[in-house]
Design a protein that fits this description.
By secondary structure, the protein is an alpha+beta fold. It has a single domain, classed as 2-Layer Sandwich (Alpha-Beta Plaits), CATH 3.30.70. The strands form two sheets. It has a four-stranded antiparallel β-sheet. Strands 4-5 form a two-stranded antiparallel ribbon. β4 and β5 form a beta hairpin. The longest helix has 12 residues. The protein starts with 5 loop residues before the first helix and ends with a helix.
């Protein structure tokens, strides 16, 4: 399925200690994104949703973990994360308050 809106491309921000430290030191924001989206689509989505200028986008494909419930063996879905580097004078309010 091809994402139709910017909200379909960017699912949610990743707010962990490691990502918060990367934001404070290097202005890098981490988002969980749609698996089929590319760097250009992610850049446009972040710039339009948060009204900031993006310097660089790096993407990471993550494999789903294997999970067992009793006898049944299953697997979580694969995912994709994007690490977005902002221009030096830009900021996103979601990452500022945490």
């Amino acid at each position: 399925m091809i994402p139709s809106t910017y909200y379909d491309i960017i699912r949610y921000p990743v707010l962990t200690e490691k990502t918060m430290q990367a934001y404070q030191m290097c202005r890098q924001c981490t988002f969980t994104v749609d698996r089929m989206s590319n760097k250009v689509e992610i850049r446009k989505a972040v710039e339009s949703l948060f009204k900031v200028k993006v310097d660089d986008v790096q993407t990471i494909r993550t494999k789903g973990k294997k999970k067992r419930v009793g006898k049944n063996l299953g697997k979580k879905a694969d995912g994709k994360k994007a690490i977005v580097t902002l221009k030096p004078d830009q900021k996103i309010d979601i990452f500022e308050g945490v």
